[in-house]
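Reviewer comment 2.1 asked that we show a complete input and output for one of the modelled complexes. We chose the C2E case, as it is the one discussed in the main text.
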Amino acid sequence: MIEGSDEILFCEETPDAPSSQRGWRVLIVDDEIDVHQTTVFAMRGLQVLGRPIEFLHAYSAAEARTVLIAEKDIAVTLLDVVMEDVDAGLSLVRNIRETLGLHELRIVLRTGQPGYAPEMDIIRDYDINDYKTKSELTRIKLYTTLTAAIRSYNQLHTIAASRRGLDLIVRGSAKLMAERGINEFASGVITQITGLLGLPPEGLIIARRNDSEPLSTDSLRIVAAAGRYAGLLNQPLTCVDDAEARELLMRCLSEESSVFGASRTALLLGSSVGIVMAAYLDSADPIGETDRQLIEVFCSNIAVCLENLDLFSQLSVSAYVDPLLKLPNRTRLVQEIDHRKRKIGGEEEILILLDLDHFSETNEALGHHYGDRILRAVGARLSERFASPVLVARVHGDTFGLLGPLSRLKYHDVTELFQEPFDLDDSEQMISATFGSVLIFESAGDGSETIKCASIALKRAKANGRGSVARYDREMGIEVQERVRLLRNLRSAFQHDRLFLCYQPQIELATGRIIGAEALIRWKTESGELIPPDRFIAIAEYSGLIVDIGQWVLRNACHRQTCLEKAGFTGFRMAVNVSIAQFRHPQFIDVLKQALADTEINPAQLELEITESMAMLEPDYVIGVIRTVKTLGVSVAVDDFGTGFSSLSYLQRLDVDRLKIDRGFVNAIRSPGQTTECIAQTVIQLGRNLGLTVIAEGVETEAQARLLKQMGCHEAQGYLFARPMDSADLTPWLEARRDTGCPVDD
Ligand code: C2E
Ligand code: CA
Ligand code: CA
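Response of the prediction step:
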């Protein structure tokens, strides 16, 4: 990201370069700073037609207007559809063409969601070059899109003198944009080209897929035919009896460029996309230079048209249908809820979300094909059982949605479907599911809000145990609002440095030596209130914010360790809690390496704590990451040990260094001889047998410490020795115990 911003500065500070060397000016209009940065970053160092790209930036439609008035020669604008309001982008487009009269400027629309496809009329009327969803814009796609747009701009610009041509091209390609279907499109192309050249509408077009088998006359199909060629539509190229025409078309495709003969022409139409087309025309006279340029512009526009043709057909089908199950998808469900909400009167409608239990485990254990079979079987049974007006949809992953009138959609009928085993081609399997529902009129907002409410109920149901059923009520919504508020505050607290770390010392029981500390996060609000991590860590995990917060914790804790080391507390171990979201993050190892390098901590003095339940989530993955962590010299502890269900063999495979006995077991050690004490004893023994160091947390009394020591527990941490302290208190605390430590009597 930092590199991205450098780039912006670099680009904007070179406006005085000679004009032939000057970059193509591309204006990014988007209200998300990220999009600017990633775009600039993606195009770094790339050139189009031998010239670099120079980016200009606007963060709203209003700002874009100012830039467009002040700046000259902007070739392309990459324009966000949704900014200040849902059609800020489109009104800007209107403004660009109508008020500002910028006709050469090429417009590439970008949108976050596929659902926001602009209307065909808008694309046509405002001569929009291209339309992409942001997720589609990979580096390569972005480059191709920009190249096509810049090339088109360049050509438009060069021949701007010829108003006739310009008008024709703009109107012509816009018209083509609106056409659907390859045949219709191709015949439109013939009409347009011959119209441009003032020729009778006569010619043919062949097409092939870019990636298909080697070029040969019989693999090529005629997709448009006009005039005396009309009868050849949908025939292979071999049916054209004019050998010279065939040869010209083949040359055009194999050389990937248009061929202008004396009285015949083969034009290459779009080669950057899935389909390549070539058009053949007879012309009594050779085509002149100006007309050639005109035609070239037109043809390069067609590349974009073709790509859009593809995009539109994709949008209309896949926008509403789940590709795997061929069921309506989430977008379609949202649309239908909206529709039914608008209906006045009629019966109360309910949305039931149904989530398959343990699907991800099954998927992982038995493979995706097996998972797909389960999904198909469930989808099939649901659609067999429920017909219109009930809508069966796949919302995402293993979550299905059922929408319909209360009388047609009874819980009982839905749950009953899971009483019978499902047929999976060669086997039968019982599948259970958890359900969450909402009455659609009880949820405020639009269809996606309704789905959200049902998911809240679903989560509640899951918390009550798999296989259960929960119905949304307003209380749940308030809970969510509260969480949203908390998350917003947490984010701001993180940005404004209101998070800090406390450190709780750890003691070696045999010697009383202070061996290290665990870093624990603290949040102090502006009003001075301390919010405990138990209240915000889960939200940070849920929202993904934990990844950034965790990185910050890691770096700070490592830094603290090196400070202590320098202050003479040598060999002090720093334990840092790492949550699964962090652990699972693809950059985790890099983040860890960077923290080690930047803080110069001795890796042997760092320990990562992962909870037992987390280690159980994705065994193989976790085992792999732990292995990598250990190759860096960093050690790993299993936190809250005893609360998960890890088997001995799994623990062995985990290859960790330390087990941290959960507070609950320590807490239970009150009176000797109780069964709880036995559990603590067993856990310690288990750890010792595996050759691991065992540490007890939450040690509050002398008696507990003494018993733990007798049981063979190696280390301890708890209020008995010290509460977590901030760094200012930690140093004097350590200083005062430099010689004595915290001895525990036998
Ligand atoms: P944990 O990792 O099990 O941390 C131990 C918790 O027990 C700490 O609560 C600590 O203050 C508390 N504790 C220590 N000694 C005693 C004692 O003698 N008696 C009692 N009753 N409690 C004791 P804290 O600091 O509120 O942290 C709660 C949890 O929040 C932690 O549990 C950990 O899961 C999470 N957490 C804290 N900091 C971080 C962090 O930086 N990253 C992540 N991912 N999680 C963190
Ligand atoms: Ca911990
Ligand atoms: Ca713990």
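The domain at 172-318 is CATH 3.30.450.40 (Beta-Lactamase). We note this here for comparison with the apo prediction described in Section 3.2.
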